Structures are given as C-alpha cells and as structure tokens.
Amino acid sequence: KTAEACMKHVHRRLCLSAADSATATAAQHEAVNTACSLRLELMRVNKQFRECRVECQQREEALVHELEEARSLLSAARRTEQLQQMQIEYLSLQVQELKKNAQLQETSNVMSE
What we know:
Distance between the termini: 164 Å
Number of helices: 1
Largest sheet: none
Order of helices and strands: H
C-alpha cells in the first residue's frame, strides 16, 4: 500500500513537472514569437527611417539648389539695378548738357540780334 501511494505521489509530481515544463515551453514560444514580432517591427521602422532620410537628403539638395538660384537671381537683379542707376546718371548728365547748350544757343541768338 505504501508503494502504491508512493507511485501515485511520484506520478502526480511527474504530471505537475510536465505541466510546469509545458507552461515553460509555451512561455518560451510566446517569448520567441514576441521577439520575432519586435524584430520585424524594428526592421519595418528602420526601413521607414532610411526612406525618410533619403527623402530628407533629396529635399535638402533641392532647397540648396533653389537657394543658389535665388542668390544668382538676386545678384543679377542687383547688377541690373546698378546698371539702371548708371544709365539714369548718364541721362541726367546729358539732360544737363542739353540745357546748357540750349542756354548757350539762346544767349548766342540774343547776341546776334
């Protein structure tokens, strides 16, 4: 009778141990699944990050190009403004010269009369 009780006790312990082992195995499988899911998510996020980085670099290059164009246009506009200012000064001098010539002509006409 004692041997039979002992066998039942051992059997129960083995069953509990097997159940514990199954629980541990299930937990390990769950941990592996979670790790795999996290790894896939990390790969997806890394891919998105690389794509965003490339897009940002392309945008930066485009903005640098636009900035260089704007600087070039501004420089050309300043040169044009300087040329126009020089033309205005030249025309102003010509107008003064014409007025002076007109006054001299008028004086000459008055004297010859």
